[in-house]
Amino acid sequence: MNVLNKLRMSEILQNDEANSTTKEIEMDEQEHEDVEGDDHDHEDISQKSQSSSDSSENEDEEESELHSKIDTLSTQISQNPFIYDNHIEKIKLLKQLGDLYRLRDARADMSKHFPLTEELWLDWLRDEIPLISEDKDKKRVEELFEKAFGDYQSVPVWLEYVQYAIGLMKEKNGLPLVRDAFERALSAVGLHVSQGSNIWDAYREFENAILSGLIPQPGAVVTKEDEEAFALQNQKVHQLFKRQLAVPLLYMQNTLDEYKEWLGEDIIDINTQKAFDKAFEKLQHLQAFEDKLINSEIPQLQTYQEYIQYELKSEDPSRIQCIFERALKENCLNTDLWLQYTTYMDKLKLKEQIESVYERAVRNCPWSSQLWVKYLLAMERQSAQFEKMKGLAERALLVGFSQASDYLSVWCQYCDYLKRRINWDADHEETLETFRLSTQSAVNYMFENFGNEGDPGAVLQQYLSFVEAKFCKNMERAREIWNEVMQAGHGAEAAMWLQYYRLERMFGDSKHCRRILQKALNSVTDWPESITQAYIQFEREEGNLEQYDMAVLKCEAQLERINERRAQSEQSQQELKTKDQQAHGEKTFPKKRKQVEAKYGGAGDSGLQKKRKVDHLASAKDSAEPAVKKVKEEIKEELQEENPTSDKQEDSSRVISEEESNSRVILHGESVKHDPSKDNITVFVSNLDFSVEDEIVKGFFEKCGEITNIRLVRNYKGKSKGFGYVEFTDSNAVLKALKLDREFINGRPVFVSRCEDRSVAKSQPLKFSTNLEKNKLFIKGLPFTMTKEDLETMFQVHGKLKDVRMVTYRNGKPKGIAYVEFTDEQSASQAVLKTDGTVIGDNTISVALSHPPERKTSLLTRSDLSLGSGKKETAFRGKARTQVTLLPRALRQSGQQDTGSGDSSQEKVKTETTSMNNADFRAMLLKK
Q1: 37-71 burial code (b ≥16 CB/10 A, e <16)
Q2: pTM
Q3: Sign of CA dihedral 661, 665, 669, 672
């Protein structure tokens, strides 16, 4: 720096000399220009002063603008603290402003709601460490380090920690504190294959520095204590080298060379060499994974999964935890990865580490009910206090899950804990009452927030009734609970009645069992055969002959009534099919229809009735097969007579297959009879393109599970009607298939729903929620050319997406509206702020939180409509197209006739009647 200064000064002096010489020459030639030069100098000084003033004003304006932006962000954060980018922007502006105290508060506020990244922690720590002046400052910094360790395992953060510890060497017990810091760092990240050597090298350099300080000065007298201290420190360095060489780390060959150089020998001891060889061999296997990580882009989830699977085979808990931590640092929002890690930690049964991992898991992925449920279980295994368990459950319920099933799973887990907490062999009144109140609170919570769909299987109430019946011996209360369940809309479900019956059978008495079965017999509509079987079996086991006979009579009578209703429903369907048959049959097969009519009794109703009987035989039981076969053969012969051919190969299209002849007999097409026994393994598929065949449907659903049968409903030509049934081997496949609802086949959205008998099925509720969904957006005004992939690309920059649904017409054409669901509310709120009003091409889109209007219900039923009941409007249609006048024709005519007399009263009647409307007439009629 001194040399540079001298050079610069010499340049300045030389320039000054040159300038002075030039000025002297110019002064000799033009003296009058000196005055002008002085004036210009004054002007330059004035301009510089003005420029400085302007710069100061600009700085003030910039600072004022920064304050305004910070205040705006503070307001937004106070209203919704879960928008990540607002915190980042506020911290950036405060750092630019240099306001340390507000910056510290902003960072602390963000840390409450989000785990901070490695970069954020390093910035924070590096700002705080130089400000340490008192013990409270050191304590605050150490607390910050502990929080940083709790978010992610970061090698740079641990290096910052050991450097901070080295800075405290001069304090009391400074050396042990530094060594403790290094050992903690090695335990946390010392096995990190690519970065762990940084910690090891820093530790060795620290110990080497201490060793160098113990070397005696030339001429100094060396005591025995000095020799012992030197030997002890020398041994520490030896041990550090050996420990590091036994760990598979990148560039470990360089560490070996350094060790040999430090020893001054080319050969090391046999044990160290063996440990190095084993670690180096391990490194060769890990090198492939490390190369993939280096050459791929973040988050590298697939590579990390392969890496984890490899380490799991080694069964080394430390290495497995290390690779999990590395993967989670890059994939901190991946719920499946956290579930995988927590499952592994549950197996290790390390109390302190398990709680830490679960706390970090729910901090990173609070929307996952599975993580909260596993967290509750893990804490229960560790015998956590009741207050802690209660607080944990309350935290879970406050995070804002997207589905009712998530809340239900948390409530069920918490109620399970409360039930297991009861010690039935001791005084348990308090714990039992806590269980009862909490379970009832769960029932109320689910109903108030989600209605009957909150707990569709009444799981919570069934659980409470079971505990009341089995453990409390309180069947009266159990029956009350079940009556509430039935009154809540489950009275027509056979499965619920059978559950009630089983509970009564185990813990109740025969009288109430019989009463339950009798009520079920008269109430069940979905599967009455199961109730009749249970009722008859019960009377066989518990009743006398008279009671058995009575049960059989009741069951037979009820089944007869049900079969009659089914027959009526089938008949109405048959009539609709017959109309369809007549409409299509006359157009397609007019000649063959006449021939068939003549063959079965001639034209007219009687012939058609006979023909319909044959149609019915085609779908009847095996006993009718000969008649159907006969009709098929006759029609086949007649068609062959119409189109004779000597060479079948030349005109094979005229040969009628068995399937085609079957479609000719059943003119209205192929029907599929509902089989209630397979409802739980079957889905109903509709809105299919008519060209879609069984193979395409099979290819679409085979990823859900093994398919046993596909039954597409067909018309009289044998072509698909666009709907049918897909039958699986188990019910789990049905659940997967239902998730494919509104996915596309051949450009059309496919509707997938549970299979049920629509003739007796109860009305279905609206599938999609009508409540405010804070994590789902409703977008309208989209260009029709915009695809689902375009929408995902547009919105995924604002947060992790859970689902994107483009709303289309039944033919697959877009409506210009869509729903985008995020995994968390803050991302959705951020997306609304940043995308609402965005212009895409010629369209300006509208983005808002999803809050569909409730479906309107009819205000008036048919029985409500009567004369004088007022406006005839319902939710399904508006005013009637034909408005019939209620004024009698005689009055209308009398009002129009001219009596020819001058009677003023008649003229008055005439005037009134001609101007009288329906309301006037109704008022007049009611008055009379």
Answers
A1: eeeeeeeeeeeeeeeeeeeeeeeeeeeeebeeebe
A2: 0.57
A3: negative
